[in-house]
């Protein structure tokens, strides 16, 4: 009997796996404009995940997400917990020193400070679409000054097609 030929599975490395997980996590966000997901990883093991949303117990429906209200306090932006922030909160009592953070969007300056203070040593991001804005210039500067390694993720895995408004691009990876 002829033996069935088996294709060797393509290896899915840490970067492709954990960024995909960050994007999957982002789908839980109620933000209709920008869904962001993040995960924290130590030595190839998942420590926690987070996505952007209102603080626990605050309804998602009491304030508009779209930034159209006249006063700042009537918009969602100042209230929302960022994906990275929630990933840190969700870690429980685990030590984050030496961890890698995967995030769909480049961290803001407040999350950059948390990254440094928690001892995270590497940040992998998919999009830095707001990089010219001051708060991201400052964020990058904070990470650089604190010697946090920052790198852009370039997908190389063929089996994934994920979409997220974090990048405004379909995340269509292909094996190179
Ligand atoms: N790194 C990030 N993580 C996040 O979770 N967000 C969230 C907060 C908001 O819900 C949404 C849009 O953020 P902003 O562009 O208005 O600020 O994305 C935004 C950024 C960008 O700083
Ligand atoms: Zn942030």
By CATH, the superfamily comes out as Cytidine Deaminase, domain 2
Question: What is the total domain count?
Answer: 1
Percent of residues in helices comes to 10-25%
Q: What is the CATH architecture annotation? A: 3-Layer(aba) Sandwich
Q: List segments where confidence is low: pLDDT < 50 over at least 5 consecutive residues.
A: none
Q: How far is the N terminus from the C terminus?
A: 35 Å
| Biggest pleated-sheet summary | 5 strands, mixed
CATH C-level class is Alpha Beta
Cofactor: Zn(2+)
Protein name: dCMP deaminase
Binding site for Zn(2+): 82, 108, 111
GO biological process, one term: pyrimidine nucleotide metabolic process
What does the secondary structure layout of this molecule look like, with pairings?
Blueprint: H1 14-26, E1 37-42, E2 45-51, H2 83-89, E3 100-105, H3 109-118, E4 122-127, H4 134-145, E5 149-152, E6 161-164, E7 169-172
Parallel strand pairs: 3-4, 4-5
Antiparallel strand pairs: 1-2, 1-3, 6-7
Helix pairs in contact: 3-4
Bound molecules: 2'-deoxy-5-(hydroxymethyl)cytidine 5'-(dihydrogen phosphate) and zinc ion.
GO molecular function, one term: zinc ion binding
Cofactor: Zn(2+)
Active site: 84 (proton donor)
List keywords for this structure.
Cytidine Deaminase, domain 2, single chain, binds 2'-deoxy-5-(hydroxymethyl)cytidine 5'-(dihydrogen phosphate), 176 residues, two-stranded antiparallel ribbon, alpha/beta, binds zinc ion
Please, could you describe this protein's structure?
By secondary structure, the protein is α/β, with parallel strands linked by helices. β1 (37-42) and β2 (45-51) form a beta hairpin. It has one domain (14-162): Cytidine Deaminase, domain 2 (3-Layer(aba) Sandwich), CATH 3.40.140.10. The longest helix is centred in the first third of the chain and has 13 residues, at 14-26. It has a 5-stranded mixed beta sheet, with helices on both faces. It has a two-stranded antiparallel ribbon with strand order 6-7. The protein has 4 helices and 7 strands. The mean pLDDT is 87. The two termini are 35 Å apart. Helix content is 24%, strand content 21%. Bound molecules: 2'-deoxy-5-(hydroxymethyl)cytidine 5'-(dihydrogen phosphate) and zinc ion. Zinc ion binds at residues 82, 84-85, 107-108, 110-111. The active site is at 84 (proton donor). Zn(2+) binds at residues 82, 108, 111. One of its GO terms (molecular function) is zinc ion binding.
């Amino acid at each position: 009997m002829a033996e069935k030929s088996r294709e060797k599975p393509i290896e899915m490395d840490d970067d492709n796996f954990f960024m995909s997980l960050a994007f999957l996590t982002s789908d839980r966000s109620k933000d209709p404009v920008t869904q962001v997901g993040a995960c924290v990883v130590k030595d190839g093991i998942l420590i926690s995940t987070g996505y952007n949303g209102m603080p626990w117990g605050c309804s998602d429906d009491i304030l508009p997400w779209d930034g159209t209200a006249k006063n700042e306090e009537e918009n969602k932006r100042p209230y929302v917990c960022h994906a990275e922030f929630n990933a840190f909160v969700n870690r429980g009592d685990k030590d984050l020193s030496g961890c890698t953070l995967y995030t769909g969007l480049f961290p803001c300056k407040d999350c950059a400070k948390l990254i440094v203070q928690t001892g995270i040593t590497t940040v992998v991001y998919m999009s830095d679409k707001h990089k010219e804005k001051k708060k991201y210039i400052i964020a990058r500067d904070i990470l650089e000054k604190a010697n946090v390694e920052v790198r852009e993720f370039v997908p190389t895995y063929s089996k994934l097609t994920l979409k997220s408004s974090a990048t405004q691009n379909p995340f269509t990876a292909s094996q190179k």
